[in-house]
Backbone:
């Protein structure tokens, strides 16, 4: 079975009503992203950081996978689909995809502030000050913040380098190191890019660009692959 590796970004979940930081509006308009998503922010004002992620988590629990998520799950009937996502939501999993690798963490998980290996599923949407791990330290969002190492990038690179097909969907490829994954796709591997804009993809090999939102573009891709 051929390996179909997918790199998905914020545009993948936008159709499910998942807002990006800059689209959240309201209270958060007056904050720079580093004020709620960095180690410095956590050290300075953990209550603010907790509140920000609680709101994102609550919104996620009210949201549902869209047609694009479902199409990727359906493609597992024909391909070994391996999804590398920049998204921290769990919509790929809820749609039925069985191999999802989260580069930037997972919103519905939390981890110890002292021992990063202690990771827990969070029941509900609220993480509070005073919620601690088994060793007694405060729990924090299981998210890769600005300024933190993307520990999973090497594993993601291995997946890309063994791909038979590579698909980019819903990402402008401006966020590194994830954006660099497209540049290491093997020369013989077809690349499909699904995005209504023009992602910043750097590669010397031919690319099929589908200028559509995720759900429409993935439907077209599915039809193309099944010919």
Residues:
């Amino acid at each position: 079975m051929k390996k179909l590796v997918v790199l998905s970004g914020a545009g993948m979940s936008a159709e499910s009503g998942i807002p990006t930081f800059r689209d959240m509006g309201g209270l958060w308009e007056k904050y720079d992203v580093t004020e709620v998503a960095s180690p410095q922010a956590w050290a300075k004002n953990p209550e603010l950081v907790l509140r920000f992620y609680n709101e994102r988590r609550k919104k996620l629990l009210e949201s549902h996978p869209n047609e694009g998520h479902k199409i990727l799950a359906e493609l597992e009937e024909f391909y070994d689909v391996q999804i590398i996502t920049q998204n921290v939501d769990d919509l790929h999993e809820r749609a039925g995809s069985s191999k999802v690798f989260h580069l930037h963490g997972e919103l519905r998980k939390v981890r110890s502030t002292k021992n990063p290996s202690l990771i827990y599923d969070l029941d509900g949407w609220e993480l509070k000050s005073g919620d601690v791990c088994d060793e007694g330290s405060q729990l924090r969002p299981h998210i890769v913040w600005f300024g933190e190492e993307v520990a999973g990038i090497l594993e993601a690179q291995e997946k890309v380098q063994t791909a038979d097909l590579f698909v980019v969907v819903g990402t402008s490829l401006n966020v590194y190191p994830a954006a660099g994954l497209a540049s290491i796709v093997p020369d013989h591997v077809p690349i499909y890019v699904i995005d209504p804009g023009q992602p910043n993809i750097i590669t010397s090999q031919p690319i099929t660009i589908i200028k559509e939102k995720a759900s429409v573009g993935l439907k077209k891709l599915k039809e193309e692959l099944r010919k």
About this structure: Residues 183 and 202 are 6 Å apart (CA to CA). The two ends are 16 Å apart (CA to CA).
